[in-house]
Structures are given as structure tokens and as C-alpha cells.
Write a structure and sequence with these properties.
Number of helices: 23
Strand content: 5-15%
Structural class: alpha/beta
Helix content: 40-55%
Radius of gyration: 24 Å
Largest sheet: 5 strands, mixed
Distance between the termini: 48 Å
Strand order of the largest sheet: 4-1-7-9-8
Shape: globular
């Protein structure tokens, strides 16, 4: 059933080509550059995700990696939720599976291209199961917790979602081993973040608040696992007048079901409390006092920028909502003299009926495309040229809208294609209002461009102009540059003269690389321990002695 659910959602995206939409950008072979490891000048928001994808795409084709991630993101979550619900009824398990695997959260994050969130969400039921095993003292429980948390910690937000679920499921008696796993697994991003602290623009709080998707308001939208700030990625069905009524009804039924769930399942109360915390954090910015608190935090506390886009924390609410509703349905159908299977089928199909436009990649909203040959040509030139200097892409913009991608909004793909560190403008525009970025290299580069100065002095050795996308490039900036390649979509220039390679300042290398190695080590050992029969590693050790 989980495989069918995943195919119904992402099946059209499993053909040849790449899905390039908003934040979801994969490439044939992603380079491993300092930014991938948290050693660059930009915040470690995509660490270690970029490093992991770089490693995987050196083994498998990039589009294959993307398709595996998309399929597993919509397969593992429903399967895990169905297995987690404490029941012997297959029908009730299906209710939980569909309730967890067909949600507004998944739809909006898919359409926004937040694949690490999709993967983290899919792992939460498995992390809860591993945490419960740790609570009960079962063999290999800790390594299971590490193994299932590993795919979720590819970004800071995913790591915190996994950590909260692990603590809630394992309980306070197992807090120390859980904390050890959380600290080491998340070290690849928190270590560089501490070594290179930064703060965010307070304007981002209001711009990234949870939003009302219908007449029910922001709180009701969040209770229904929606409320994402970008209205362009919200399914049209979320605006239907009946949705708030269904949301309130499902919420009440789920809360009633959680009473029975608490009798059957030890961590139910903690998981429900975590879900309530997720809802609270998601709507905090919509409350005047909460908004001021968040504005102060993101502008004064390094790392508090994670509190932006607070709707992501509602992922914690998805598990108690799905499990509670499934258990309540089971309790209700027991009182029916006939038609129990029909009632279970109706409960399982309710999420699909109420939001049909998640099916088939949003009824064609997302499609696969192929990169123009220009990208391979430019990549080849940079691979064979060992002259120093990073690449600057113009026009300055975080996002692109290429004709070859049907003018969809997408992140500039250059940093994930080119084999050199690539600098892009990290200013984000929301509703026409700019949200300042945090890359410390951008201000001097902007000043140099405005003054028509020497780009080599700010560490830039190459300039890539991307055509067929909104934005203007000053011809005087390009005049002193040496053209190296010209194609329909890209033109590559070399910056003449010496290049100052000391301008890109990142955190200290040793502690960051130690953090990366430590996380990789415990994940590798955990996977090996699970793959080998119990005692095999200890037996090998004894024989060597």
C-alpha cells in the first residue's frame, strides 16, 4: 500500500530527467566543495546534505539519486506509521498510513522542493519505533535510532525534528544515550554554525509566518498540517470551504483516539506533547507577543534563524494526528453491526478525497526536464582549468526561471553543477520584499560590481552569465573579462589578473572535519551492526585477538 501511495504521488517524476522546482535542485554529478562540508562563508543550512548528495552522485547518476529520494520519502513514512499504530487490524494500519502519508505538509514541501524535510518526515515514525525500543531496552535499539535518524539529519531542521521525536519516544530514562546520538549526528551543521555564528534579518519572521489557507485561519490550517507561507505551493483544494470543518473534526477525533493510544503505547503522551509543541511553534509568529519574541531571537541569537519558517515544526503533530485518528476509527467501527470494512476504507480515503491535487505530482505541477548541453560544456572547462578563483553567477539572484524548465522558479543550479565554489546572491524576495542573506562574501562583491572594480580582489576568478532568466547584467562589468565559452543559455568569462584566494573565510577546518568524521563513523558502524548478525562483529574481534 505504501508503494502504491508513493507511486500515485511521485510516479510521473520517476521518468528520465530532473525535477527542478524552487529549492529542489539536483545535478548529474554534484561537486564536493568547501560549502558542502560547512567550510564556506555561507551558513551551514544544507550541511551535510550537499556532501551526501555529492558522494551519492559520484556512484549513481544524479537523476537516479533524486528519484530514489522522492520515492522513499513517500514510501517510508506511511509504512512506518502503519507499523507503529498499536493494533492487529490491517485496515486500521492503512488508516494510519494514509493519514500520515497524504498530508498538506507533504504536498507543500514537495511543491516547494524541500526534499530534506520530506525525507526527515518519512523517518519520524521509524525514529519513534527505535526510540520506543530503546525505552524498552531491546537489543540494537540505539544503533537503530542512529540508523533511522541519519537520513533525517541532512539539514539542521531535519536534525531537530528527528531529535525531538527521539527524545519523546525514548523517554527521560534513556535521555543520555539519546542525547549522545543527537549531538554526534547533528555535529556536521552545529559545529560550523558555532564557529561561524550569524544572525538573521528580523523581517523574515513576519514574511515566513504560517498563513491562513482558508476561512478557518492560520491555526486551523496548521492543525491540518498546512499553513505554509508561500501561497504559490499550497494545493488549491486547501481553500475549499469544507476543509476547516474537516480539520477540526479530524483533530477532535484524533485527540479522543490519543486517550486510547496512551493505554496501548508508552510514548503516546510524550509524542502528543511534542505535537502540541510543534503546533505552538508553528503559530507563534502569528501572535503579537510571539512575533516580537521571534524577531528579537533571530536578530540577536546566533542560529535562531532556524525559527524562521516555523510551520516546519508542525511535522511533529503529524504522527499523533495519524495514530490518534486511526485508533479512534478502530474504536468507532467496533460498535457498527455491519459495514466495518467500508467505514475503515472511508477513513483511509478521507485525506485523498479532501486533497486530491497531491496526486500525480500535483496533477502535472511538477515535471522532469533535462539540462541544456551548455551546463556540461561549462563544467568541463572548469574541470580542466586549475587557475584559482571562485565562480560568480550573474544576474545576481537566488532563484532562476529558465525557459527550458517551463519558467518554473528554481534555485540557481550552478553551485550544484560547477566543480568550483560558486557564489550566488542569497537575498530572498518574498512578496517583493527583500530578506537579507547571511553569506559574508556578498557585500564586498556587490560593492565591487557597483564600482566596476576588480573581481579578482574579492576572490572571483570566473563569471558565469545565465541567459533566459529574469535579471539584468551591467555590460560594463563584463567588458574587462575574457570570454571563454558562449552558448544559448550560458556565457563563461575569466577574470584577468591575479585572484586573491584569501577572501573566502570560513570556520576552522579541523573541528568541522572532525565533526563530519564522527557523524559518518557512528552512522557507518550502526548500519554495519544492523546488517551483520548479532555478535558477528564481536566474534571477529575475538578471532583477531
Amino acid at each position: 500500500m505504501s508503494a502504491l501511495l508513493s507511486l500515485v504521488i511521485v510516479g510521473p517524476l520517476l521518468g528520465a530527467g530532473f525535477v527542478l522546482n524552487y529549492d529542489m535542485v539536483f545535478s548529474p554529478t554534484q561537486p564536493l566543495v568547501p560549502d558542502s562540508l560547512g567550510l564556506g562563508s555561507a551558513p551551514a543550512r544544507s550541511v551535510p546534505a550537499d556532501a551526501v548528495i555529492a558522494a551519492l552522485t559520484h556512484v549513481l547518476a544524479g537523476d537516479v539519486v533524486q528519484k530514489l529520494i522522492l520515492f522513499l520519502s513517500f514510501f517510508l513514512g506511511p509504512l512506518g506509521a502503519g507499523r507503529l499504530v498499536p493494533t492487529e487490524s490491517t485496515g486500521v494500519r492503512l488508516v494510519a498510513a494514509v493519514g500520515y502519508g497524504w498530508t498538506a505538509y507533504l504536498a507543500e514541501r514537495l511543491f516547494m522542493g524541500h526534499w530534506p524535510y520530506l525525507l526527515a518526515y518519512a523517518c519520524l515514525p521509524w525514529i519513534a519505533a527505535a526510540g520506543l525500543a530503546l525505552r524498552r531496552g531491546e537489543p540494537k535499539a540505539w544503533v537503530r535510532l542512529v540508523a533511522w535518524s541519519a537520513p533525517a539529519v541532512l539539514t539542521p531542521s531535519g536534525g531537530l525534528l528527528a531529535a525531538g521525536t527521539a527524545f519523546a519516544a525514548a523517554g527521560w530514562r534513556r535521555a543520555l544515550p539519546t542525547l549522545a546520538a543527537v549531538i554526534v549526528l547533528n555535529a556536521p551543521w552545529w559545529v560550523p554554525s558555532i564557529l561561524r555564528p550569524g544572525v538573521s534579518s528580523p523581517d523574515a519572521v513576519a514574511l515566513f509566518d504560517a498563513r491562513a489557507e482558508n476561512w478557518g485561519g492560520a491555526v486551523t490550517s496548521v492543525l491540518g498540517l498546512g499553513g505554509y507561507w508561500n501561497s504559490e505551493v499550497v494545493p488549491a483544494s486547501r481553500a475549499l470551504p469544507l476543509v476547516p470543518i474537516l480539520t477540526i473534526a479530524v483533530t477532535v477525533i484524533a485527540l479522543l483516539g490519543c486517550r486510547e493510544l496512551a493505554r496501548r503505547w508508552e510514548p503516546a503522551v510524550a509524542i502528543l506533547g511534542l505535537g502540541a509543541l510543534g503546533v505552538f511553534l508553528a503559530v507563534l509568529g502569528t501572535i503579537p507577543v510571539g512575533a516580537e519574541l521571534l524577531r528579537w531571537a533571530v536578530s540577536e541569537i546566533p542560529g535562531a534563524g532556524l525559527l524562521r519558517d516555523a510551520q516546519k515544526w508542525v511535522a511533529w503533530w503529524a504522527l499523533p494526528l495519524a495514530l490518534g485518528f486511526a485508533v479512534a476509527t478502530e474504536q468507532a467501527v467496533r460498535h457498527l453491526p455491519r459495514g466495518r470494512l467500508a467505514a475503515l476504507a472511508a477513513a483511509a480515503l478521507l485525506p485523498v478525497i479532501s486533497m486530491p491535487d497531491l496526486a500525480f505530482a500535483g496533477f502535472g505541477r511538477l515535471e522532469t526536464v533535462h539540462y541544456p548541453q551548455d551546463w556540461a560544456e561549462v563544467r568541463g572547462i572548469l574541470l580542466t582549468d586549475d587557475r584559482p578563483g571562485d565562480v560568480l553567477t550573474l544576474p545576481l539572484s537566488t532563484f532562476r526561471r529558465f525557459g527550458w524548465n517551463d519558467h518554473r522558479t528554481q534555485l540557481d543550479p550552478a553551485p550544484r553543477i560547477l566543480p568550483k565554489t560558486t557564489v550566488i546572491d542569497d537575498t530572498v524576495y518574498v512578496g517583493g520584499r527583500p530578506v537579507a542573506g547571511e553569506d559574508t562574501r556578498l557585500p564586498p562583491i556587490r560593492e565591487t560590481l557597483a564600482a566596476h572594480g576588480d573581481l579578482g580582489a574579492v576572490g572571483i576568478g570566473w563569471v558565469l552569465v545565465e541567459h533566459g532568466t529574469p535579471g539584468v547584467v551591467d555590460p560594463e562589468v563584463l567588458e574587462p573579462l575574457a570570454e571563454q565559452y558562449r552558448g544559448e543559455w550560458l556565457t563563461l568569462y575569466r577574470v584577468p589578473g591575479p585572484v586573491d584566494t584569501a577572501t573566502a573565510v570560513g570556520p576552522m577546518r579541523f573541528p568541522v572535519l572532525l565533526a563530519d568524521f564522527s557523524a559518518l563513523l557512528i552512522v557507518t558502524l550502526s548500519w554495519l551492526w544492523l546488517a551483520l548478525p548479532t555478535g558477528r562483529l564481536s566474534g571477529l574481534t575475538r578471532r583477531e585477538e
